[in-house]
Amino acid sequence: MIHAGSNVLVHLRPSPVVARVMSGTVVLHEEPERWLAGEVAVLRFLAPSGMAVPPSALIAPGPYQRDGLWMTFWQSLELRGQADLDDGAEVLGRALRELHDELSTFSGELPGFADVQQRIARLLRLLRPSAALSAERIESLEARLLALGDAVFRAPLPAQALHADASLFNLLRSASGRLVWNDFEDVCRGPVHWDLAGYLISLELRGADPAFVAVRERALVALREGTR
């Protein structure tokens, strides 16, 4: 076993194949097969570029369901770890820009931004009051999601294929030093701003101070717009 968390990753040694089994993440998707099929399709599309962990070429990658569990199969890569703040704003920004540029020509079927809003709404309906989460807090979250509908989920912005969970946690460094994107389980169509926002939030979660994030935000936007 390589990792056990929101997904369970198992290296099928001696084959260079990794099985990823949905565990906690299955509750995020009302139709797991649809979302996983989209992920496999996108990563097959990206495989020639080498910028993302590719589906397995030794076994049909799936998705499969067995004993109530959903799984897919991926190529095993030698990795150094995750990307780091020390990689610098331009390197990190360029990694996301190049991913978006590559994904911009993907024409396959993917869930839209309306699906993302519905998924979040469904998760909110599953919440129950507890000592750590009051009924008022749950109602507040539902109201905030509703308020974001027009500004975020129905904004008149160009849409394309997105990673949809773009963060430093999903940007890995291969043994050769190349940055490689991972975990496209939430892939969908929407404005690139969604990925940019998630990316910046991940900088803060990694411990970056506000000034650090502000500098990187400007660099990311500049790279997104094709300027220097």
Counting H and I runs of at least 4 residues, what is the number of helices?
6
Number of strand segments: 10
Specify the CATH architecture of the largest domain: Orthogonal Bundle
Give me the strand/helix succession.
Answer: EEEHEEEHHHEEEEHH
- Strands of the widest sheet, in order across it, are 1-2-3-5-4
Detail the poorly predicted runs: none
Instruction: Give the count of structural domains.
Output: 3
Question: Per the principal axes of the C-alpha atoms, what is the gross shape?
Answer: globular
Can you put this structure into words, describing what you see?
With 228 residues, this protein is an alpha+beta fold. It has three domains: 76 residues; 105 residues, Transferase(Phosphotransferase) domain 1 (Transferase(Phosphotransferase), domain 1); 39 residues. Helices cover 40% and strands 18% of the residues. It has six helices and ten strands; from the N terminus they run E-E-E-H-E-E-E-H-H-H-E-E-E-E-H-H. The strands form three sheets. Strands 1-2-3-5-4 form a five-stranded antiparallel β-sheet, covered by helices on one side. A three-stranded antiparallel β-sheet has the order 6-8-9, with no helix packed on it. Strands 7-10 form a two-stranded antiparallel sheet. A hairpin with a 5-residue loop joins strand 2 and strand 3. Helix 2 packs parallel to helix 6. The longest helix has 19 residues. It is globular. The mean pLDDT is 85.
